[in-house]
Amino acid sequence: MEIDYEKLRSDLIDYFGSAMYSGLPMAIIDLSKVEVASNNELIEIAIKNNWNLTKYLIDDENIKHR
Predict the structure, then answer these.
(1) Which pLDDT does position 62 carry in this prediction?
(2) Is the pLDDT of residue 21 over 90?
(3) Is 39 helix (H, G, I), strand (E, B) or coil?
(4) Backbone Cα Rg of the chain
(5) How many domains does the chain have?
(6) Which of 38, 49, 40 has the alpha carbon at shortest distance from 12?
(7) Measured between alpha carbons, how far is residue 60 from residues 2, 11, 51, 54, 65 in Å?
(8) Rounded Cα distance, 22 and 25, in Å
(9) How far is the C-alpha of 16 from the C-alpha of 12, rounded, in Å?
């Protein structure tokens, strides 16, 4: 199984961007980290924020259609 890192990064950017505009200005730090994070760092950020990574799993069939 493989992780859809593009979707994970996009969702994390949306999450921290929304937090920033909802009155949590320190979220800009996390947003900046997500924008430049490696794939492993994305996983670490998601886990640190209690994200369920199973929705980002892609199977071999989905990989063929990307």
Answers:
(1) 52
(2) no
(3) helix
(4) 13
(5) 1
(6) 49
(7) 8, 22, 23, 15, 9
(8) 8
(9) 6
3-class SS letters over 5-31: HHHHHHHHHHHHHHHHHCCCCCHHHHH
pTM for this entry = 0.81
Q: What is the dihedral of CA 44, 13, 16, 57, to 10 degrees?
A: -40
Could you tell me the residue range of the domain that residue 45 belongs to?
2-64
Provide the pLDDT for residue 61: 54
**Residues making up the chain, counted from first to last:** 66
User: pLDDT tens digits, residue range 24-59?
Assistant: 888 889 999 999 999 999 999 999 999 999 999 997
Q: In terms of pLDDT, which residue wins out, 23 or 14?
A: 14
Q: Which tokens go with 33?
A: 């980290």
